[in-house]
Amino acid sequence: MKKQIEIERDPDMLEDYDFSKGVRGKYVQRFAQGSNVVVLSPDIAEMFPDSESVNNALRMLVEIAGRSVSKASAH
Predict the structure, then answer these.
(1) Closest CA to 55 of 68, 67, 38, 32
(2) Distance set, CA 13 to CA 4, 10, 17, 48, 51 (Å)
(3) 11, 42, 49, 57: most buried by Cβ count inside 10 Å?
(4) Dmax over Cα atoms in the chain, in whole Å?
(5) pLDDT tens digit string along 44-67?
């Protein structure tokens, strides 16, 4: 006799969902190829309204760092 495990239901999930034919990880490789997820600390995330602003700030930082490296190697 198998012991049944009681699973706590997510209140946001409706009873109508049927995952019986679902395949775990079916799209994980496709997702990984097209994305690079970085989780920001909450205090940093507050400073950026969206991913575009984060990307712009990082691009500027890379540009500034590149200039600093160029100047240092010129001496």
Answers:
(1) 38
(2) 21, 5, 8, 31, 28
(3) 57
(4) 78
(5) 999 999 999 999 999 999 999 998
